[in-house]
Every structure is written in C-alpha cells, then in structure tokens.
Amino acid sequence: MSEQDIDRQLVERARQGDKRAFEMLVEKYQRRLLRLLSRMVKNAEEVEDIAQETFIKAYRALPNFRGDAAFYTWLYRIGVNTAKNYLAGRKKTMPTLSDQAMGDDDEPDERLVVQDLNTPETALMSKQIALAVNEAVDALPEELRSAITLREMEGLSYEEIAESMNCPIGTVRSRIFRAREAIAAKLRPMLGTSQDTRW
Fold first, then answer.
1. 172 — phi, psi (to 5°)?
2. Which of 99, 101, 136, 163 has the fewest C-beta atoms under 10 angstroms from its C-beta?
3. Can you give the residue range of the structural domain that contains 56?
4. 108 pairs with which residues across the strands?
C-alpha cells in the first residue's frame, strides 16, 4: 500500500469522525509543514500559529479533498496560502534566502553555503557564490522564487509543485527554467563561464 493510499484511508476515517486519524496526519506532516512555513515567515511562534491554522483549515476542508492529488500537496497549498494571507495582512515580505543564509553572528549559515574547506580562498569563493545565488533568488518575482524553492529546497516533483501552486505543470517548468537562468546569469561572471553555459 502506497503512502498516498494510507493518507486516503486516514482522510476517509477522519471524514467519518475519527479524530485520531486526523491526528495521525498532523503528526506525519507537521514537521515538513513547519519547515516549509519557516522559509516564508521568520518568527517561530508565528510559524507555529500559521501551521495550526493550516491544519484547522485542512480539517474543515476535508469534505472538499478529492484525492486526485497527494494529501500533503493539498496541505502544502493550504499552508502556503495561509502564510501569504498572513504576510499580506501584516504587510510583511517573505524573508529572503540571503536572510536565511545569515546566522545570528552575520556569518552565512553553513548548511546554506556550499563548502570546500581545502583553502581559505575556496571557502571565501564558496561563500560568495552562495550569497550571489541567494541574491539572485531574492530578486526573482514571487512565483519564480516559490517554484525554485519548492523544487530545490523542498524537493517536490514538478507535479507536486503544480498542485501546490495551482497552475499547469508547463507553467512550473517554465518558472523553474526562468529562475535557473536568472541565477546562472548572476553566477557566470564569478565562475568565468560563457553565455551558452548555464554554470
């Protein structure tokens, strides 16, 4: 039995009033949802609140879940929309990847910086490249930034991204291609690569 089949059974049981079935879905996807939301909202307490609101909305919307997409893809879409509405209501902007790359001491977060510690020069170059990538991503329009983040950081498939962004898969492919091209244009001068080479 696939994960999607298990989720469908849990959804069906939750629809019939089995609260434990929905709790199992919450336990299964809570960490992934929190990780996604924390890329959109900086404050950890706000992330928790948005996640809770997402699960409440999902529970209320269970009768509308058709099951033609994976449950977590449907849940992600609710989460992203809830976060966007929250940010719009608070007139906040989404934190950028470069904000996330910087730690408390204004040093790039090692997990978001490509590392090659053989020499100080390569370490510095790696940090510069990572910051350039982050700046390029920051400069992207929101739909391109969301698509590349879901693909490269969350590891979602094109189909899952299309479902969570509520757009055709061709649009997702185009957005990811355009995002990668914009990032490559920023990196070419640093890497000394030609115009016809992506990296």
1. -60, -50
2. 99
3. 1-95
4. 102
